[in-house]
Hints:
peroxisome, oxidoreductase, FAD/NAD-binding_dom
Amino acid sequence: MRSYTFFERFSRAFHDYPSLSKLIVVSTVSGGGLIAYSEANASNDGMHAVARPEAGLKKKKVVVLGTGWAGTSFLKNLNHPSYDVQVISPRNYFAFTPLLPSVTCGTVEARSIVEPVRNIVRKKNVDVCFWEAECFKIDEENKKIYCRSNQNSNLNGKKEFAVDYDYLVIAMGARSNTFNTPGVEENCHFLKEVEDAQRIRRTVIDSFEKASLPNLTDEERKRMLHFVIVGGGPTGVEFAAALHDYVNEDLVNLYPAVKDSVKITLLEAADHILNMFDKRITAFAEDKFQRDGIDVKLGSMVVKVTDKDISTKVRGNGETSSIPYGMVVWSTGIGPHPIIKDFMKQVGQTNRRALATDEWLRVEGSDSIYALGDCATVNQRKVMEDIAAIFSKADKDNSGTLTVKEFEEVIKDICERYPQVELHLKNKKMSGIVDLLKEAKRDVAKEAIELNIEEFKSALSEVDSQMKNLPATAQVAAQQGAYLAKCFNRMEQCEKNPEGPLRFRGSGRHRFQPFRYRHLGQFAPLGGEQTAAQLPGDWVSIGQSSQWLWYSVYASKQVSWRTRALVVSDWMRRFIFGRDSSRI
Length: 584
């Protein structure tokens, strides 16, 4: 029998039991430190007993399409053994997409931010099988999906196959939206996948190598080293900042002859960049980019892209101009995949930008198909659509009027079912629903307030104005995946004992609490070791302290301890040796 050395045993222990590791300490040069705790719980740690399915019971088949943030979060949190899970995706790994801009410039290596799907699910109590293939058709009527292998090897002509399901979880993400702008698909780079980041990195190096050749004119050299980013959202801004740091901290030292020819331009169709952030962050980012020499053109709409020029039109006066470039990165939003568009036609959602679901993430009109992440949008039901049913349910004595006491008995269910009510009260700085009702009856004491249906409608008439679509971010997708897994884990229990709010248009209660997104904050790295952070409670921080917070949070959010260690080591390597400029 082979005897293991100490180091082999140590390595095997951490490989088999990642929960042994609890924290990473990212120390600052000044002597301070930040501790990044992992939220990922190992599925085999024995802390939670999971009920086994009864003998003879057939397992429900759950098919998951996609291994992005939503799909991976669902797989990590699903722990009830009564499901047979089939995962289908054209990529066999999960990618930590918020670090893609860092990959484009060599700050982080591509391998450091990906984790094989089989590593994530191999020790779960749930039967999980993965197939590397692409789904090209969803047949809702027959509960089948049709897939095609993306392997180019000889499969005896059997590249396509069908899969049955009991529950289908669509978590396919989205693709870059070109808005049908001529030339974008053919001439622009996107930044959605790991392969995109690697192509951008190679193109940047190629541009510098070509510009260093002796047989070029100054005009050709300037064109080759003109990098244009279209889109002033978080991805475009972060890439522009990362590219600026890469050029000024590393490449100018290696290519001193062409350093004066480099130019970075950021095109944004709106009036400001980072529109979804606090105005203080937007103003700071624009000022910093101006100081750094990044040319920010606001109100510039791209109308055409050729292989050497990008045509823009100024919003307002319609003035057009042509900009020569060496590389264009397109980052202007997202759109649905073709398969999602086809499925939307099947379910009567042809005029939508994403697949509409209810508050429980079920595709509208279906009981067995769920959609989450960037491919879907939660269609929150309006209070005014159910106002008569709410009034009827609250009016238990059928008097035709509603007292404060009657309304208080259902207010918890109303706030759970319609979160815009609570948001409306908060924005109006009201302590409770009584204040809202008193607005309709200003001269009446609280105890004597009685509202008829018309007065009740008037009191709640502005509530639905607080409704907003959830942003297409990794944070939303991850929370949706975890929520849906929790629902699946408690499916049998909640069938018998529903936990959700009252059914105002029916009897009983909903099985589960509806999905509620909890915003934990957002970051905008701006280069030069400075990051803007906007956290809950209107707390804004900009500077190096926020950069270290960014390091800490992104390290803790890695999907495994392997990727966490690799990312942190990449950051340390960059601090010591700089970024790599080899073209591999």
